[in-house]
Fold these 3 entries.
Entry 1:
Amino acid sequence: MDDLDVLRQEFSENEDAFLSIVILDRRWDKEAFARLERAMRGVCAAFEESDQQDLPRWLVEGFWLCVDWLPDHTAHPRFPRPEPSTYYEAALMRLQELQYWLVTGASPYLPEHVFADL
C-alpha cells in the first residue's frame, strides 16, 4: 500500500486509524502515530517532487485535523499522556512541519536530514 492509500485510511473512520483511536479510545497509540507520521512524510515528499498543483481536499483536511485539532484534544487534563511531555511536543511539532511541507511544497528540512523515530 502506498503512502497516499495509508493516509486515506488514516483520515477515514477506520477504527485502527490513529485519529480514531484518539477519539474513540481516548489514548495516544505510538505505533499508529508512527504509521501516520511516516505516511505523511512520504506523501509530502511525493507531492514536492510532482508537478501536481492541486491537493485533494480530504488530504488537506486530514493534515489540518492533525495540526489544529489534535493538540487541543490531547492537551485536555483528562486525556492520558503516559509518555514524557517531550515526546508529545516533538510529535506535534513534527505534524506542524509536515503540514508546512504539504501546503508550501517545500520541505523545512535540509536534504540530508534524517528523521528520528519519535
Note: The mean pLDDT is 91.
Entry 2:
Amino acid sequence: MFLFLVAAMVVVIAAVTLAVLGSGDGSGGPATGGLADAPPDRLDDPLPRDRPVGPADVVRVRLPVAPRGYRMAEVDDVLDRLAAELAERDARITELETALAGAQALALHKDQGPAVERD
C-alpha cells in the first residue's frame, strides 16, 4: 500500500510538472503567450517635465500601491511638484494681474487727456 501511494505521488508530481512546463499544444516546447507582463510598481512620473502640469495630467496620475498602502515618499514627491507648480502659477497670475491693472490705469489716464479749462 505504501509503494502505491509513493507511485501515485510521483505520477501526480510529474503530471503537474508537465502541465506547468509544457506548452499545451503537444509540441513539448515552452509555453508562448500567457499572462501579460505586470506593470512596474514604481511611479513612472507621468507628470510632464517639459511643460506645466494640466488638469488632465493630474487625472492620469496613478500612484503605485505598496503592501501597506501607497509609498509615502513617492506621494510626497508628486504633491511637492504639484504644489511648486501651482505656487509658480499663482505668482505669475498675480504679476500679470498687476501689470494689467497698471496698463488699464495708464490707458484710462491717456484717454482723459489733459484737462483744458474753457471760459
Note: Residues 101 and 107 are 10 Å apart (CA to CA).
Entry 3:
Amino acid sequence: MGERATLVQFSTAFCQPCRATRRVLDEVAAMVPGVAHVEVDAEEHLGLVRELGVVRTPTVLVLDAVGRIVRRAAGQPRRADVIAALGHAL
C-alpha cells in the first residue's frame, strides 16, 4: 500500500490493454509521492475478483491511504484521468 494512495490494477496474461495500463499507472505512481501501483493477476485471485465485482481487465481501483476504494474504472485509462482520480484519494 502507498502512504497516500494505491492504484490497484486487475490484469490477465492475455490482456493487451493491461500492458499499456501498467505503464501509465507506473508513470503516475512515480510522479506522485506516496502513491503505489499494485498489479493483481485476476485469474489467480478469482475470489477477490468476484468480491469486488471485477468483470473485465484491466480494471483499476484507486484506494485512499486507509484502503477505501474512492474511484474505479474498467478499460485502459488515460494518464490525466488517473491523476484526476488520485485527487479524490489524496
Note: Helices lie at 16-31, 46-52, 79-86.
